[in-house]
Amino acid sequence: MTAPAPAPPRAAPTARRISAQLRMELRLTLRRGESVLLTFLIPVLILVFFSLVDVLPTGTEDPVDFLLPGVLALAVISSAMTGPAIATGFERSTGVLKRLGLTPLSRRDLLVAKLGAVFVVELLQVVLLLAVGLALGWDPSGGLVVAALGMVVATVGFAGVGMVMAGTLPALTTLALANAVYLVLLFLGGVVVPLDELPGALQVVALALPSGALSEITHGALEHTGVPGVAWLVLLGWAVAAPLAAARLFRWE
Questions:
Q1: Structural domain boundaries in the chain
Q2: pLDDT by residue (tens digit) across 64-105?
Q3: For residues 77 and 63, what is the distance between their CA atoms, to the nearest angstrom?
Q4: Taking CA atoms, which of 20, 51, 66, 184 is between 20 and 30 Å from 139?
Q5: pLDDT tens for each residue of 239-250
Q6: Do 69 and 215 touch, CB atoms closer than 8 A?
Q7: Nearest residue to 111 via CA among 177, 171, 149, 159
Q8: Largest Cα span, the chain
Q9: 40, 125 contact by CB (below 8 A)
């Protein structure tokens, strides 16, 4: 009698697959010098430079009080959209994602792992930026919980936008587009220029973007000027629509 064929290996539980991929995403992120520059150094440089050189129409007595909420929003853009979009785009073009697609790791598992890695990086960013802000004289008078909630919702939306780019476009196109969008949102996201200082048409566009909505929330929460309800609606809309689009359009190759 012939021996029965061995049973095929069982796939690891979903949580274990996601956890393993999340750890790999974090290692790869921290090894990429350009990713560290974009994610950590640029927001800090913007915060320090424009806090010490008072050249912006911030409308606050101390520039750091305006800049810190905006730079926190910029940190979300860089870590949730720009960096992951570029990295994932090149992983897709070099066949890394195609090989991952042959494993038990599903498209949903991959997207969840990448989003989890983004949240870990953002936590490090927030700690660093708050420490730098305190050193520059920022007064933490509350509102951090509301600002943090807005950043969490925005992260989901920006990650979805990044994965749509990375999962549908060639790598070099993703690189160019992600950096272009980053620069546009830098100026239309209330980071260095207050949204109410923009021309009327640009202000409407800015407030409809997730960057503008997030800026409204971080500024309103940390400066205690109140958070418009429409900002939450815009942000929640992006947080729902962008991930759904990514889950539908993302391709392994």
A1: 15-52+59-249
A2: 888 898 899 999 998 899 888 888 888 888 887 778 766 777
A3: 21
A4: 184
A5: 999 989 988 888
A6: yes
A7: 159
A8: 88
A9: yes
